[in-house]
Write a structure and sequence with these properties.
Layout: H1 3-21, E1 33-38, E2 41-43, E3 46-49, E4 54-59, E5 67-69, E6 100-104, E7 109-115, E8 118-127
Parallel strand pairs: 1-4, 3-8
Antiparallel strand pairs: 1-2, 4-6, 5-7, 7-8
Protein name: EfeO-type cupredoxin-like domain-containing protein
Organism: Candidatus Abawacabacteria bacterium RBG_16_42_10
Pfam families: Cupredoxin_1
């Protein structure tokens, strides 16, 4: 096995472990907008908010859902770092039914997001 193959395997194992074990504290911020996550996806999938507003993602499904910045799997589209994979706009784990992820958008732009556990579910948030 080459050094490159071994390095890739170690990186993949480390990435997988990080995804499953990094806890993210629940914010106590009051949400300006709530996006519900169901079996059908995000509702509403696209919204427009002002800079500094807070969005709450709440799982209303029996399956786990993991809201995170686009693009899959790097979660790096939103420009601030600090999440478990890429951007700080990342729940860092699958949300249980009723569990919430709250995020304050402090960067102007249009930010795409997805469900890391079901990449066919996605949306966008325009921040003015």
């Amino acid at each position: 096995m080459s050094v490159v193959s071994v390095s890739f395997l170690l990186l993949a194992c480390d990435y997988s472990a990080t995804q499953q074990t990094t806890p993210v504290p629940q914010s106590t911020a009051k949400a300006d907008v709530t996006i519900e996550i169901t079996n059908d996806g995000f509702n509403p999938a696209s919204i427009t908010i002002n800079k500094g507003q807070t969005v709450e993602f709440v799982n209303r499904d029996s399956a786990l859902h993991w809201p995170a910045s686009a693009m899959h799997p790097t979660h790096s589209e939103y420009p601030t770092t600090g999440g478990c994979v890429g951007s700080s706009f990342d729940a860092c784990h699958g949300l249980q039914n009723g569990e919430k992820f709250v995020f304050t958008f402090d960067q102007i732009g249009t930010w795409k997001y997805h469900d890391h556990l079901n990449i066919t579910k996605f949306g966008s948030i325009e921040v003015k």
